[in-house]
Amino acid sequence: MADREAGGVAWAGKAARPGRLLRGAPVSFERRARDPAFLAALAALALAIVAVVAATYSLRGGAEPVGPGATVVMLTAVGALVTAGALLRSRFAARRRAHEREAFFAESLARLQGPEGFARTLGTVLHDGRSFFRAGGVAVPLRERSSGRAWLWAVPAGAAPGTPAQAVELGAGAAEDWLFETDVEAWDAERVGPEWRIRTIDEAGRPSAEGSRIPREPLEKLARRLGARRLTMVGLGRGQDWRGRLVLVDARPEGPPEESLRFAQRLVRELGGVVQSRFLLGRLRSRIGAMERARVARELHDGTIQSLVGVEMEVDVLRRRADQAGLSLAGDLARVQGLLRSEVLELRDTMQRLKPIEIAPEQLVGFLDAAVARFERDTGIRAIFDCAVEDVDLPARVCREIGRIVQEALQNVRKHSDASNVLVRFGRASSGWRLVVDDDGQGFSFEGTLSHVELDAGRKGPYVIKERVRALGGDLTLVTSPGGGARLEILLPRESR
After folding, report:
1. How is domain 357-497 classified at the CATH fold level?
2. Positive or negative, the Cα torsion across 428, 429, 433, 434?
3. Which of 10, 192, 245, 426 has the fewest CB atoms within 10 Å of its CB?
């Protein structure tokens, strides 16, 4: 959409230098003559000149001033001069704002040149937009068409330029608040007393009378969520892989509201193309990485693991023969066999972590049940999965993280606990969801009931699980004693991040 050319930024083949945009290019008289504001200013100035002449000389052609009517004529002259000045000032202010907008695009596009990823590119656009519109906040809620999943992208308040945008996956309720349905292209809603004053423009940027098509109840709900008195929104991504909108909170732009709304619409269209291309590139890289990890996992399963299992079986045969012959070598072979079995289990854990997993809410219970059953089959440790729910209403990302937490917890039980039994329980809690992993192994080296904060302060407990729980906005409690087993209890809010 934009290419660097000789120190400038080009749109549609025409180079625009930032310095020239700030100063303004020469405008011909013919072009000015078609400007209504310029013509009105000329008319007012001409009227002022006529009024001054009429007030100075007699209308009869003499040199005597006009008597009693001179004051009226002079007031008319002053009014005409003030009108001409106001019109010219308004015109010059409009031109200045236009130059500043062009300079904004030139500088923003120049900053977006380079191999930056989607998050940093979007962060740059949001930071620049918030600064230019003097907004209290700016965000981009998006919904992916294929999966129905929704995210909210934003830059933290006070973040430095160049800070990557951060995403939070939205639950069903929050997604409806941010992405309520309306087919209006761009609109600005400002609270005036108990009512909302809404301005709308169509796809061509022309003012339209579509304010009645903005649903008031969702608008009011989102405004309360954000504590906002003014919301400016521009739709984006229509007809593409995702759909969303740019949301400006309590923006205070310079100039008429319709003019600012048209500029926000242009910001989405011109800079949105760069953001969209980085999004697609990032998703392509992610898919390629997932495919490569899946390939490595298959090779581990079909090659390395099968070979190690074969070697372990041969060692087992040799151990039995040595044991029958009464050879001292049998003990060494038993030790080698144990090491091989341990390596096979390690590789299987690695293979499971390499596999990309996508767990829909309706698949979570089945996934956990299968993971616990596979753990018992591979390790010989008695494992039970207890779940009293069938319907899970958590976002897909949270379901995926819960699956990873259970995999990590079971791996820790196998490697460190020396347990004979393990229980995995998942279900609803009063404030959300509860996940418990309880084993009868040797426990941790410390004793007591420790909260998430206490575990962090003492640098204790399973680090990976703590970080995953923290990323979900949940809380972890660890109950343990040396030789008395360990119980991990994880509480997740109803709308986890």
Report:
1. Heat Shock Protein 90 (3.30.565)
2. negative
3. 192
Residue 246 has pLDDT above 70, yes or no: yes
SS3 of 2, please? coil
Kindly report the CA angle at 13 between 11 and 17, in degrees rounded to 5?
60
The residue type found at 476 is: L
| Among the listed residues 92, 89, 87, 127, the one whose alpha carbon sits nearest the alpha carbon of residue 108 | 127
CA–CA gap between residue 38 and residue 26 (Å, rounded): 15
- Put simply, whether the predicted model's pTM sits higher than 0.85 gets the answer no
Q: Which backbone phi and psi does 36 adopt, to 5 degrees?
A: -60, -40
Residue 301's H or E segment, with its range, is: none
Kind plus residue range of the DSSP H or E element containing 334:
helix 329-354
Compute the mean pLDDT over every residue in the chain, rounded to the nearest whole number: 76
**Rounded CA gap, 79 and 260, in Å?**
30
Q: Which residue has the tokens 């400007």?
A: 35
Q: Is 216 helix (H, G, I), strand (E, B) or coil?
A: helix
Q: Which residues make Cβ contacts (< 8 Å) with residue 376, sequence separation at least 6?
A: 382, 383
Pairing of strands 150-154, 137-144: antiparallel
CA 496 to CA 432: how far, in whole Å?
9
Give dist(CA 442, CA 419) in Å, integer: 7
Greater pLDDT, 137 or 26: 137
Residue 141 has pLDDT above 50, yes or no: yes
What percent of the chain stands above pLDDT 90? 13
The packing angle between helices 118-133 and 257-299, to 10°, is 170
**Is residue 152 classed as helix, strand or coil in its secondary structure?**
strand
**Non-local CB neighbours of 3 within 8 Å, separated by 6+ positions:** 9, 10
Contact predicate 489/469, CB 8 Å: no
pLDDT tens-digit profile of 415-467?
A: 888 899 999 999 998 888 999 999 999 988 888 999 998 988 888 888 889 88
pLDDT in tens, 180-201: 888 888 889 999 888 899 989 8
Structure tokens of 317?
């045969």
- For 348, residues 6+ apart whose C-beta sits below 8 A from its C-beta are 301, 305, 378
| DSSP bridge pairs for 308 | none
User: How many CA atoms within 13 Å lie on the side-chain side of 77?
Assistant: 14
Taking the C-alpha atoms of residue 368 and residue 403, their distance in angstroms, rounded to an integer, is 7
- Which band of pLDDT confidence, cut at 50, 70 and 90, is reported for residue 471? confident
414 φ, ψ (degrees, to nearest 5): -65, -40
Q: Are 162 and 121 within 8 A, CB to CB?
A: no
Residue 441 to residues 165, 415, 451, 483, Cα–Cα distance (Å): 43, 11, 20, 7
